[in-house]
Amino acid sequence: MTLIKSISGIRGTIGGEVGTNLTPVDAVKFASAYGTFLKQNNKSKLSKLKVVIGRDARISGPMIHNLVVNTLLGLGIDVIDLGLSTTPTVEVAVPMEQADGGIILTASHNPKQWNALKLLNEKGEFLSGKDGEVILALAEAESFEFADVDSLGEITQNDAYMDIHIDEVLNLPLVDADLVKTKQFKVVVDGVNSSGGIIIPKLLEQMGVECIKLYCEPNGHFPHNPEPLKEHLADICELVVKENADFGIVVDPDVDRLAFISNDGEMFGEEYTLVAVADYVLSKTPGNTVSNMSSSRALRDITIKHNETYQASAVGEVNVVELMKKNKAVLGGEGNGGIIYPEIHYGRDALVGVALFLTYLAQQDKTVAQLRASYPQYYMSKNKIELTPQIDVDAVMKTIAEKYTHENISTIDGVKIDFENEWVHLRKSNTEPIIRIYTEAPTQPDADNLAIRFVDELKTIAGI
């Protein structure tokens, strides 16, 4: 059982002991720290502060939701309660409501025993690392001042934002629902029994797509591991073929990650969700792209094909967004199926990805499998090695960086070495003595062999 405190929020397993799991006490403490942070940063504001809150369909959602909402009310903060929602929907709602922040209650792709508080600023974007550290310090100090009885916050229920979010997506200039309707697509949707089972079918229906629902009851009982990886998705792969569907859509519980299943029942590949959407966006909109360092080189290749510039950020959505703003990128995201399209908001959004992909597919005289085959072919390997606490991980990484100084190397987030036809990215965990090893190459054996090579090198340097 685990409780993980980080600059992006707090997540953990439900139940157990205070301070080691996500208990009611921990939820209240962290919500108090976030509310206190907002109050300290808005002392000049004459009216009450306002926070938007939404949750995914996890079994623990209503409990954590009630604790967090009432904690904010106790601090004298008004709450706009979206109820069952998605991460990108809350991100869209915060600036629309002119709120001071937002909280999404979701543990994203983690199994059902997990939950979390994801924290947003007044722009509906994830907090900076600096702000996250302040909130962690406030939680540690437990120095909170609650409102008196005449100054308590008020709650407003608003269940319209899923529909508002869909409208915002359909109104994007690069989304052509009328064209999509003419194609009479048939699509299977795996909503992993969470919020995606409501919002994705609604979007598809408004785009004239026949939707076959699989695991779309928002009851929080995940029918498989909710991370949208191949080994968890046998049911939808089989159903796409059985139904002769054009493709399949898979989202995680909070609907910020997106994976496609090709018409032949094979994985389109999470890494290639961003690649396909980028190919479409760049064909219509000149501009740069950004993904994190552990994402596929295919995005770089597609960007270059359109005579634009690609750059890689440190891992983490907040880092991707920061570099996107700096480079004025028209599209960005992460290789886990996260699409960030600034035309609507700076956050990963599966709805945007679905709508743009459908529009692009409607313009192509290709099946989804043929579209996937048209992109540069890369294969990834993801590994890790566990080190004893006595080993100086930073020293190990420094030795690797010095050994490969003659290669194209970056040390802004661990060590990434770009070889001519392949790359390796080594990152240390912030919470345990582990080095994560990501590799990519033109074939799976090449990617696996590169990973084995660096596992061996790291172990030799560490003396294990």
The count of β-strands is 20
CATH architect. name of the largest domain: 3-Layer(aba) Sandwich
- Sketch the major β-sheet: 7 strands, mixed
- Share of helix, binned: 25-40%
pLDDT < 50 runs, ≥5 residues: none
What percent strand?
15-25%
Q: What overall form do the CA principal axes indicate?
A: globular
**Ends apart, CA distance between termini:** 28 Å
Structural class: alpha/beta
Instruction: Tally the helices.
Output: 15
Protein name: Phosphomannomutase
Domain Alpha-D-phosphohexomutase alpha/beta/alpha: 8-144, 174-265, 272-378
GO molecular function, one term: phosphoglucosamine mutase activity
Keywords: Isomerase, Magnesium, Metal-binding, Phosphoprotein
Task: Provide structural commentary.
The chain is of the alpha/beta class and 464 residues long. The chain folds into three domains: 157 residues, 3-Layer(aba) Sandwich (Alpha-D-Glucose-1,6-Bisphosphate, Chain A, domain 3), CATH 3.40.120.10; 209 residues, Alpha-D-Glucose-1,6-Bisphosphate, Chain A, domain 3, CATH 3.40.120.10; 84 residues, 2-Layer Sandwich (TATA-Binding Protein). 38% of the residues lie in helices and 22% in strands. It has a seven-stranded mixed beta sheet, sandwiched between helices. Helix 3 crosses helix 5. The longest helix has 19 residues. The chain is globular and about 65 Å long. The mean pLDDT is 94.
